[in-house]
From TrEMBL:
Record InterPro entries: Ap4A_hydrolase, Bis(5'-nucleosyl)-tetraP_PrpE, Calcineurin-like_PHP, Metallo-depent_PP-like, MPP_PrpE-like, Ser/Thr-sp_prot-phosphatase
Superkingdom as given in the UniProt entry: Bacteria
Protein name: Bis(5'-nucleosyl)-tetraphosphatase PrpE [asymmetrical]
Listed HAMAP family: PrpE
Organism: Gracilibacillus ureilyticus
Gene3D superfamilies: 3.60.21.10
Stretches assigned to the Calcineurin-like phosphoesterase domain: 1-196
Keywords, sorted A to Z: GTP-binding, Hydrolase, Nickel, Nucleotide-binding
Recorded catalytic activity of this chain's protein: P(1),P(4)-bis(5'-guanosyl) tetraphosphate + H2O = GMP + GTP + 2 H(+)
Family, per entry: Belongs to the PrpE family.
EC number, as in UniProt: 3.6.1.17
Broad class of enzyme this protein falls into: hydrolase
Pfam families found in the cross-reference section: Metallophos
Main function: Asymmetrically hydrolyzes Ap4p to yield AMP and ATP.
């Protein structure tokens, strides 16, 4: 298997289409194909903050559920939208409000379709994926070696939110431990969740959330080639949204 794993999209639908075209995929009717028999995967956080979240959901639903051409694992924003669609009392903040605004502009029929697609996509997808053919694990915020193969609340929290300490930064974001520095497994861990200006390689992990929704770029990691491919964002650049992992570690 040859795989192209795409980082956090956050409603940046046009950039998603540009990246998929740059990766060499071609559309045949509603289906995608690739001349080199490649497949796609998504690390989650399809929605929120960006301009076309529900178009991204519709597109990924077609690839994953209908065509069975792509793989998907949910992110924390996917989890939040899923709970909103179930009718839970979810705070409309940190980007969910943008997706809800899109949703409320739809007709009742379109709303029902969007809701059903997101619920089915979420419920039919694993929390994280082990893909032996490319010696990789795809998990939204990453995963520790001793969690691979396990489930439960601790694993779910780690995979969706990262290695959080329970403390918060002045801007309200959670404090996270840099788990990737201590990873010593022999499988690739491909993840996103924390925006970085360039794909962050450390040990055998790579963070491919290059902050498309914050004006940087949308990135894919290709296996077995171990290469990245990116397209520029069409969104305004917001410098303070990007992690300074390595600067923090050096201080």
């Amino acid at each position: 298997m040859k795989l192209d794993i795409i980082g956090d999209i956050h409603g940046c639908y046009k950039e998603l289409l540009s990246l998929i075209e740059k990766l060499g995929y071609r559309r045949e009717g509603e289906n995608l194909t690739h001349p080199d028999d490649r497949r796609l995967a998504f690390v989650g956080d399809l929605t929120d903050r960006g301009p076309q979240s529900l178009e991204v959901v519709r597109y990924v639903y077609q690839l994953v559920i209908k065509q069975k051409f792509a793989f998907y694992v949910p992110g924390n924003h996917c989890n939040k939208l899923y709970r909103y669609f179930l009718g839970n009392n979810v705070k409309q903040q940190h980007g969910l409000e943008t997706t809800v605004a899109e949703y409320t502009k739809l007709s009742k029929k379109e709303q029902q379709e969007a809701k059903q697609m997101m619920i089915e996509l979420y419920e039919k997808s694993p929390l994280y994926m082990e893909i032996a053919e490319v010696n990789a694990v795809i998990a939204h915020a990453g995963i520790k070696e001793d969690y691979i193969g396990k489930q439960g609340n601790k694993v779910k929290t780690f995979v969706l939110y990262g290695d959080i300490t329970g403390e918060t930064l002045p801007d309200g974001r959670p404090v996270r431990r840099d788990w990737a520095r201590y990873y010593n497994g022999d499988r690739w861990i491909v993840y996103g969740h924390t925006p970085v200006l360039a794909p962050r390689f450390i040990n055998k992990t790579v963070n491919i959330d290059t902050g498309c929704v914050f004006g940087n770029k949308l990135t894919a990691f290709r296996l077995p080639e171990e290469e990245t491919v990116s397209v520029p964002s069409k969104q305004p650049f917001v410098e303070e949204k990007f992690s300074k992992y390595d600067e923090e570690a050096d201080n």
